[in-house]
Design brief:
By secondary structure, the chain is mainly alpha-helical. The protein contains 6 helices and 4 strands. About 50% of the residues lie in helices and about 10% in strands. Helix 1 runs antiparallel to helix 6.
């Protein structure tokens, strides 16, 4: 019977694969956030969860009279339609992924005392962060366990 040595997960292959998998999982997580969590920002439950700054009473009255609703981050619905109605394609590396979302120019306008709409739009709750970390861990574990390479090297 010949001698053999079993090598599991050769390091040179694993480093490249880990980077590729990290990039893939971050991109899929960005798409997941856009599809699942971003629409929640436009609900009253989302406003409470992300701790939006209160709007002035004058603004709230004008919003109800003009637009006929009390949904947060939305007056006419343009911002909501732009960020949730379009498909967002993430770009990036294994370390960081960006999700470009086109928004109306007024999103960046901020007078003194007004809330930062961009900050509120991109806010994440601790449960979302934890859920994302769990998804990353599960994805990487599944992919790397499937990659487990076994070679036999015959030694005579």
């Amino acid at each position: 019977m010949p001698w053999y040595m079993e090598i599991t997960n050769p390091p040179d292959v694993m480093v490249k694969e880990i980077r590729a998998q990290a990039k893939e999982v971050l991109k899929s997580l960005a798409k997941y956030w856009h599809r699942r969590y971003l629409p929640k920002h436009f609900t009253t439950a989302g406003a409470a969860e992300y701790r939006y700054k209160p709007r002035s009473r004058k603004y709230e009255i004008r919003k109800i009279k003009t637009a006929g609703h009390k949904r947060p981050l939305e007056f006419t619905g343009t911002l909501r339609k732009m960020v949730t109605g379009r498909r967002a394609e993430p770009t990036g590396t294994a370390k960081a992924v960006s999700l470009r979302i086109k928004v109306p120019r007024y999103t960046y306008f901020k007078r003194s005392g007004q809330p930062d709409k961009v900050e509120e739009l991109l806010a994440m709750s601790q449960s979302e962060i934890d859920h994302g970390q769990t998804l990353i861990r599960e994805h990487i574990d599944k992919r790397l366990s499937a990659l487990s390479v076994k070679r036999r090297i015959h030694v005579s």
